[in-house]
Amino acid sequence: MAEMIPLHPRDETVRNEPFVAGSCKLHPQTMCPAFGALRVLTRIEGAQPAMITDTGCLYGLTFVSHFYASRKSIIAPQLGTAELSSGQVQEAANAAIMAASEEQNVSVIPVISLCVAETAGLSEELLPTEIDGKPVVLVRVPAYAIHSHPEAKDIALAAVMRRFVERPEQPEPGTLALLGEVFPADPLLIDGVLRRMGGRVLTTLPGRHVDELKLAGHASAVASLHPFYRETIGVLREQGVGVVSGAPIGVAGSAAWIRAVGAALDLDEDTVEQVAQQEQTAAEGFLATQPLKGATILVSGYEGNEMLYARLLIEGGAHVPYISTSIGPSMLTAADEAWLKAHGTEAVIYRKAIEDDKAAMDHWTFDLVIGTTTLAAHAKELGIPSVYYTNILSVRPLFLTGGMIASLSFVRDLLDRRPVYERMVDFSRMIG
Ligand code: SF4
User: Fold this and answer.
1) Pocket residue to mutate for ligand 1, from 115, 122, 149, 151, most atoms within 8 A of Cβ
2) Does some domain include residue 29?
3) Exposed e or buried b for every residue in 355-394, given b needs 16+ CB within 10 A?
4) I need a surface site. Which of 8, 74, 181, 343 has the fewest CB within 10 A?
5) 204 contact partners, CB below 8 Å, separation of at least 6
């Protein structure tokens, strides 16, 4: 008699097999990565981007930048087939840079070079480095080289920092620069903890003003709260700024981070230890109830900080077997990945695609999906509570005990909404 092969993907027999990611990693499914660079650059006061690309890219990127409130025009040359085939990329780029320099209140001109300009051979040597005293900074972010928008943020920030950051002879003692686009309350929470130890936050990057970027060079150390600022860290390290990796996340992460910052800033050891233990006790008090116990949660995003959320969920009692992100692996992601795998995570997928996420949904049974819009829609069709990672989770505090309570309480609330999602599916079936 033939052996019965279970067909239902959620059959236990199938789930006992290790998860296998099957998508092609050469073509990441993300919005044009250059968006990340534009997001950082358009937010800097006085920066007037000139974007060197063709009209198709310009349309899409202008749309998405304004959707995320860039509040300034993006200057670009007219680059269509005629201009490209007649070899006028350089002239068109220089004309756009000149036009950018003539805008009101411009103090710096980032030149964003994208796929078309790079392929057509835009030459850095033939671009101006300054116009009327206004620095011109080239930012190369073609999608074939920079695969995700978080990594494009890093390239853009590093390019501007390279131009402006200078280390003074006497850096400011006890000060920390934070690196990461975080919820506005997070730097305040971190500053509060640092002040209890005799230190303080000097600036948070990516900043809103060139002066904030310059300040980072004056700090005793920089803390990379998100694990994709490799270039920016390199720029600051070259200037002699100490680096603290990891983030103050959850019980174990926060205490270890506080101690690492204390050592990097050369703060009083006893005071640092006292603060680390106070944070640990407060966090453990909240976690004693294990608010997410019994829940299996999928985390998928393209922000680059997904592993931090997953750590928090696991400390809250959840099982998080699968995490995917658009960024690539690096030394900055290694510690979080190791921690997650030691705490029950079976698959950490870098440069993910929707096919990976959907395969994971077939492989495990989830109580909550925190994912991209496409994945969240797929989960809703199945009656599983689901939210869009970027707009729903990334807009809440995350760090230290305060951030942990805010994030985990919200996730608990989402888990409780399952009956609503199931009613939605029943209703759709009834009318369909
Ligand atoms: S061609 Fe390149 S720069 Fe243009 S939209 Fe596509 S990925 Fe972005």
Assistant:
1) 115
2) no
3) ebbebbbebbebbbbbbbeebbebbbeebbbbbbbeeebb
4) 8
5) 177, 178, 179, 180, 182, 187, 212
- Nearest residue by C-alpha to atom 8 in ligand 1: 32
Domain assignment of residue 5, yes or no:
no
Residue 152 per-residue DSSP state? H
Kindly report the number of other CB atoms within 10 A of residue 132's CB atom. 8
The pair of three-digit structure tokens given for residue 166, joined into one six-digit string: 């200078």
Q: Other C-beta atoms within 10 Å of 111: how many? A: 26
Shared domain for 295 and 422, answered yes or no, is yes
Alpha carbon of 13 to ligand 1 centroid (Å): 43
Indicate if 253 and 322 belong to the same structural domain. Answer: no
- β-bridge mates for residue 387, sequence order: 370
Residue at 54 is within a domain: yes
Is residue 419 domain-shared with residue 389, that is, in the same domain?
yes
Mutate to test the pocket of ligand 1, among 31, 57, 155, 326 (most ligand atoms within 8 A of CB): 57
Please indicate, yes or no, whether residues 204 and 233 belong to a single structural domain of this protein: yes
DSSP string, 388-405: EIIIIITTS--SHHHHHH
Distance, CA 33 to ligand 1 centroid (Å)? Answer: 8
Under DSSP, is residue 367 helix (H, G, I), strand (E, B) or coil?
A: coil
How close is the Cα of 195 to the center of ligand 1, in Å? 44
265 and 181, same domain (yes or no):
yes
For 265, the domain range is: 175-286
Instruction: Please tell me the residue having the least CA distance from ligand 1 atom 2.
Output: 115
Question: What residues line ligand 1, using a CB cutoff of 6 Å?
Answer: 32, 34, 53, 57, 60, 114-115, 143
pLDDT digits (tens, 9 = 90+) for 238-253: 999 999 999 999 998 9
Q: Are residues 271 and 364 in the same domain?
A: no
Residue 151 shares a structural domain with residue 71: yes
Mutate to test the pocket of ligand 1, among 32, 122, 151 (most ligand atoms within 8 A of CB): 32
Tell me the per-residue pLDDT of 153-211, one tens digit each, with 9 for 90 and over.
999 999 999 999 999 999 999 999 999 999 999 999 999 999 999 999 999 999 899 99
Indicate the pTM of the whole model: 0.90
Q: Quick one: which atom of ligand 1 is closest to the CA of 141?
A: 3
